[in-house]
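Q: My labmate handed me this sequence with no annotations at all. I'd like to see what the chain might look like in three dimensions before we decide whether it's worth expressing. Could you predict it?
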Amino acid sequence: MNTQTVKTVIDKKKSHAFGKDVYLLGADAEGIFYWLEAPSWDCDWYWGFGYVETYKRNVNPSVAKDIDGHEHIDSSFTGKVNGGKYIHNIFDSPRFASTTFTEKEGWELSELFKQFYFLKDAAANFGRGSCHISSTSFKWEDKDLAHKINQQLIPKVTARIIEILSPH
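A: Here is what I predict for the chain of 168 residues:
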């Protein structure tokens, strides 16, 4: 953890908003709460996950009339954020004044989110046999591997993320 920043660990919370379960990640210095949407298998071919939302007037998500903000965890809370500084541990994200997870859990979450995005890209690439940048005669399509990634590996990763963020 950044020794200049002291973060408060707040209670874990689960709510429901717009047809999906959401899990509280933490709050910023202004008291705005950030909620992670539960994973979903979308359009029968890809995983929707890593979406972080805030809600109008910062109300409980279950009674919110609209979202206030929609971001992706890998570009707003980890990776290159805050003027190009690289954040390895989501616990150290300058966005959070408080989190629902400890510094140790933050390291695990950061690893798991990175695994999720890697596996999601791998499944898409194996499913179509290329990276979809240009046409090439070299194809390495492997539908069985894409299926295994989507149906076995990603669910294990996302289940652990949800387990860490869930109230006990």
